[in-house]
Write a structure and sequence with these properties.
Number of strands: 2
Shape: elongated
Structural class: mainly alpha
Oligomer: single chain
Number of helices: 2
Number of domains: 1
Largest sheet: 2 strands, antiparallel
Strand order of the largest sheet: 1-2
Radius of gyration: 16 Å
Distance between the termini: 51 Å
Length: about 70
């Protein structure tokens, strides 16, 4: 039987790891505490970056500290 997700309210870091693993967005990296982002996970990351960049620019910022 498939492993059930840890309840978010019970252990947020474990829940996050469970979601990432179940969605196959990233794998554990070769060094403790690292992750290797899979293509779908990276595409989501790029989309988030682009959205945040657009919002920062629309608010008059440069996306750089002090800008």
């Amino acid at each position: 039987m498939a492993r059930v997700l840890t309840p978010r309210a019970e252990d947020f870091p474990r829940w996050y790891q469970d979601v990432v693993a179940k969605a196959e967005l990233a794998d554990n990296g070769p060094v403790r505490g690292t992750m290797v982002i899979r293509p779908t996970g990276y595409a989501i990351w790029e989309r988030m970056q682009s959205e945040m960049d657009d919002r920062i620019k629309a608010a008059g910022g440069t996306g750089r500290p002090g800008g």
